Amino acid sequence: xxxxxxxxxxxxxxxxxxxxxxxxxxxxxxxxxxxxxxxxxxxxxxxxxxxxxxxxxxxxxxxxxxxxxxxxxxxxxxxxxxxxxxxxxxxxxxxxxxxxxxxxxxxxxxxxxxxxxxxxxxxxxxxxxxxxxxxxxxxxxxxxxxxxxxxxxxxxxxxxxxxxxxxxxxxxxxxxxxxxxxxxxxxxxxxxxxxxxxxxxxxxxxxxxxxxxxxxxxxxxxxxxxxxxxxxxxxxxxxxxxxxxxxxxxxxxxxxxxxxxxxxxxxxxxxxxxxxxxxxxxxxxxxxxxxxxxxxxxxxxxxxxxxxxxxxxxxxxxxxxxxxxxxxxxxxxxxxxxxxxxxxxxxxxxxxxxxxxxxxxxxxxxxxxxxxxxxxxxxxxxxxxxxxxxxxxxxxxxxxxxxxxxxxxxxxxxxxxxxxxxxxxxxxxxxxxxxxxxxxxxxxxxxxxxxxxxxxxxxxxxxxxxxxxxxxxxxxxxxxxxxxxxxxxxxxxxxxxxxxxxxxxxxxxxxxxxxxxxxxxxxxxxxxxxxxxxxxxxxxxxxxxxxxxxxxxxx
Amino acid sequence: xxxxxxxxxxxxxxxxxxxxxxxxxxxxxxxxxxxxxxxxxxxxxxxxxxxxxxxxxxxxxxxxxxxxxxxxxxxxxxxxxxxxxxxxxxxxxxxxxxxxxxxxxxxxxxxxxxxxxxxxxxxxxxxxxxxxxxxxxxxxxxxxxxxxxxxxxxxxxxxxxxxxxxxxxxxxxxxxxxxxxxxxxxxxxxxxxxxxxxxxxxxxxxxxxxxxxxxxxxxxxxxxxxxxxxxxxxxxxxxxxxxxxxxxxxxxxxxxxxxxxxxxxxxxxxxxxxxxxxxxxxxxxxxxxxxxxxxxxxxxxxxxxxxxxxxxxxxxxxxxxxxxxxxxxxxxxxxxxxxxxxxxxxxxxxxxxxxxxxxxxxxxxxxxxxxxxxxxxxxxxxxxxxxxxxxxxxxxxxxxxxxxxx
Lengths: 555, 406
Hints:
Chain A is of the alpha/beta class. Chain A contains 19 helices and 19 strands. Chain A has a domain of about 190 residues: FAD/NAD(P)-binding domain (3-Layer(bba) Sandwich). Helices cover about 35% and strands about 20% of the residues of chain A. Chain A has an 8-stranded mixed β-sheet with strand order 7-6-5-15-16-17-14-18, with helices on both faces. In chain A, strands 1, 2, 10, 11, 12, 13 and 19 form a 7-stranded mixed β-sheet that branches. In chain A, helix 7 packs antiparallel against helix 8 and helix 8 packs across helix 9. The longest helix of chain A has 27 residues. Chain B has a 6-stranded mixed β-sheet with strand order 10-11-12-9-3-13. In chain B, strand 16 and strand 17 form a beta hairpin. Chain B contains 9 helices and 19 strands. Chain B is of the alpha+beta class. The interface between A and B is medium-sized, with 17 and 17 residues.
């Protein structure tokens, strides 16, 4: 059956990138329909109840929502970035409701304006107080760390942020084109070259020297604190199939640092209402712009007529017609499954199938009856907690993943989102949301058998860092990459819809021939994280793809 | 030698046989007076067996038997076989009926020709693709998304080309009753030796002729049977040199002789699109998508096609093999890829690859520079060349059905 209604553009997938693309296109006056297979929008960014009264979102830290996206969509960031309400939950799981008396030194003093709302990162250790990094990726460092080491940290941080800024036009904005670029884009690349030149000879030499280094060696060059080195290592490899000592692992850190929040490079926020609040904000923008949104609408085929996209067929048989189709889902799914090999060249199928996209991160949601007793001050608990005792520990955690086994001593990043937004848990309760690394998609023996053992390993690590946490657990939801794949329709359960490594970046993302959001099929565009620059809640692929459809300059 | 090494050596015994032997090799070897072998796709194949002139005339006046077993053969089977072949190749396979053969070609994503060959539709769901180069990885990757299986059957299927004016009569005498009713590009299976023989009215000679395919196990019995049946009709085994003359007269091209296949080309500008090697007629834009279509359409639209393949008739009688083609005797316009004095056409012919606009817009005042080596001295000849139609030699008996009974 064919719907009589035809659209200018149909956007497939209601993740944040799909929503951003739909909004930008609708704002430009296009008649846009966004179709989402699930009941809810947002994919892993949506906030959902995982246990009665407890809500969490799989993506839990906002650290790269692009300012141009905020501007293009006119998003009200204040609603998302307001400082968290005074903390009422009990201190260190003691169960009382002592109120924090003094304003946080961690949140003030770094810089004014938006920076004041940034969440700190606490590097946990079972035996000592944490090291606390605040501002934009540790602009200020505090806690159990020597003055010498603080200086070393600040110097290394400044250097990395400086270098990331040079890569920013590439890693956070436009993908370079090999077959001719508009002048405006050439100027952007030229600007990067100028910035590189301005570094000075020695700095430039170091920038080039470090480009493809591994993060372990870089950390070793600067730092002596195992906790700091472990953190830098963890940060660089989070979400990828790399260990700190794997060549090029530093690039992951650069990618992280090309993100900014509230105008601060490397800044991060635990959004109120969970990441779902960001999705809701973008959805509102899309609807305000006039885009139609249809959920429960799974696309089974992208209609191609005479080599050009002509619309989509839904799983229920409905055919919707459009002059262009923007796919904000996985690039492989889009081309191989929805377009089909019969409309593509063999080489394109080869390239789409060769994208490496096997996830390595598991997601843990714990419904806790009280705030767990992590050894960290209250203000830090509301930010991000990292368990990565040393770079070696992260490397050791990675080793088994190479052979299809999970880490017996996983590294992790923990957020207690209910501390920023008490509505996410029942009174007195607490939500723990954690990214656990490494959890290979293809676990030897399968995840059905492996999951309980992995959960036990995770809980053992948590118990060491927050004694008594096990007794607080009302419910544990562990999403392996296989679960993430099934729940969010993300092949391989991979955050980025394609490993974010040097061979799958820039003109090779998702693969050469589709790097500028256009596909071999006329009128079919790619707008998801699988496209340049990659994943994370940035909205850049969605924005760039929409602008490509409109024939405008990329972000 | 350690046990491990010995096991490894045993598994690599093919390395010791530098050239494979075709299932017909014992017969060819017995007939070979020249002992002049070349390597065809890894097989030992004869350049000439006794006398290349006489072998050529066996094609044109008797029955010539040429061993085509080394030809690379793929078995393509499954409900999605037609759709697979249609996406793989340039011509419309939906129009290829079961029991028919299509001469076709296939391209990579950039529209550059990977190979040309013949596609046999043995049934609604089973095909055999015969070609010059090996393509299994490409075919297997092209099978993704299609309900089809692809496997190589080069070694298990033996093939013979039986060509020449008396070939039909020989096959009739061999007991393949009804072979005379086969039209060009027909396929039919005849009982033979329990396994049957698949006969197609195809060939590379432009003459009346057939190609016979049997299980490799039935190869020698088939050979012996044919030679016994054809003795009085002048059946002779031939080598490639004679066949090559016949194919040039017919204007057929050979991969990696008249054009460089896309996967073999080392230099970026050596690859060719179908329109650049005279195969533009195969490109069917009315059929569904096929590999390279977008690139071919773009090249046609943007006018970026760089070469063209033409037939030349050259004055004189010295073959212009690999001669440079000039416009107005000065400006280089291309290269002769194959040339002979045509014994049947009685003219000096050549196939040449020209750089456009030579051969398309500019077609006159073309010359070839022939270096004829005469007792350790090159005699430089600048000969006028005229673009002529292919085939250079057209024989009515190639298509006449039923063929004449000689």
